[in-house]
Amino acid sequence: MEAREILWRNARLATFAGAGLGVVERGALVTRGGRIRFAGPEVEAPRARESVDCEGRWITPALIDCHTHLVYGGDRAREFEMRLAGASYEEIARAGGGILSTVRATREASEEALVAQALRRLDALIAEGVAAIEVKSGYGLDFESERKMLRVARRLGEARNVLVKTTFLGAHALPPEYIGRREAFVDLLVDEMLPALAAEGLVDAVDGFCETIAFSAPEIARVFDAAQRLGLPVKLHAEQLSNQGGAALAASYGALSADHLEYLDEAGVAAMARAGTVAVLLPGAFYTLRETQAPPVAALRRHGVAVAVATDSNPGTSPLTSLLTTLNMASTLFRLTVDECLLGVTRHAARALGLEGELGSLEAGKAAHFALWDIERPAELVYRIGFNPLHRRVWSGS
Ligand code: DI6
Ligand code: FE
To answer: Given ligand 1 and candidates 75, 82, 92, 99, which is best to mutate, with the most ligand atoms within 8 Å of its CB?
Structure first.
């Protein structure tokens, strides 16, 4: 059977093909099978056998959530109440709550249960036009439980029309059985877990949490060395609660991204710029923890660092499953412009996942995953709170 050819006419395009939105007012797309063949002015569009009248709607590339912890057991509503009563995130973590309470719940949950729970969150993202997400491990912290999380992540990509990139986040927290034996845990990560999980094809990238309550820069360096030996790209939770020099470390390994970055200094920004490392900003965690120091957006602009925006969807610091709400937070809390916000969930998010050749813009040759919106201008995607103007998400040209 021949591939379907469709002309998507009478549309307004935000192609994200250049530096900005790449607006084409009287635009059209032509898709053939799962690929974009043409994106540009309707008068220049090649013929196609079928056509769809988009009735003047805006079309953007499908959205990308490039930093999530979507797979986990249980929830942290109780801890939320404790924080409302005055406890801090760090205090709860040091008392064995926080990440470790989710580790307990995740270890206990069956693979089936984890799939079912994560699918509900994934469906919320898809309903807003998301077609690619990253999913991290890091709530298992023993071999079988990390494996279970990554298998669940892969299964999400089989259960839905969505591209899933998996990330091994073994260096997320020290599990209780390794208290007092930090080095032995890092040994386990680098000598056993990561090589075995990578050999099973479960790992697309390697991440860590570089923080006083998690892992030091030298410990993270050992994890990155192991990733490098396996040919896997790295990324890092860096400078979220304090400045540990994590972003510069990540940049020295050519990291895809450094994420959070509230406490990033100018030297870290410069290192990221030199390495082409994307800055992934996570306003949901900033909001939930009621942080006051925003990431250094002006310095990131000045150095030309590409900025992405993601939900950080996780049960503790960002129980957020709306990428559109995240855009509103990024503009209101971090003062990102509309263009920066939208680039942050399309072109730059694709880059943060190493998918820039495939997704993130409307350009001939890329996958035909895009979104049709009932809006008058792109700013509406950032400006509204709790309103979803998606008309239709197109996956693979249909
Ligand atoms: N930083 C975060 O914001 C999440 N992980 C991380 O390293 C929080 C994870 C959690 O609290 O469960
Ligand atoms: Fe995170």
So the answer is: 99
In contact, 292 and 270? CB cutoff 8 Å:
no
Residue 2: its pLDDT value, please?
78
pLDDT of 95 reads: 81
3-state secondary structure 158-183: HHCCCEEEEEEEEECCCCHHHCCCHH
Judge whether residue 89 has pLDDT over 90.
no
- Provide residues with CB under 6 Å of ligand 1: 98-99, 102, 172, 209, 237, 240, 285, 312, 314-317
Among protein residues, the one with the nearest Cα to ligand 1's atom 8 is: 317
| Atom 7 of ligand 1, residue of closest alpha carbon | 209
pTM for the whole thing? Answer: 0.98
Averaged over 331-346, what is the pLDDT?
98
pLDDT tens track for 295-314: 999 999 999 999 999 999 99
Ligand 1 pocket test, pick from 241, 257, 317, 318 with the greatest ligand atom count within 8 Å of Cβ, gives 317
Task: Flag whether pLDDT at 377 surpasses 90.
Answer: yes
How many CB atoms neighbour CB 231 within 10 A?
A: 7
Residue 334, pLDDT score? 98
pLDDT digits (tens, 9 = 90+) for 361-375: 999 999 999 999 999
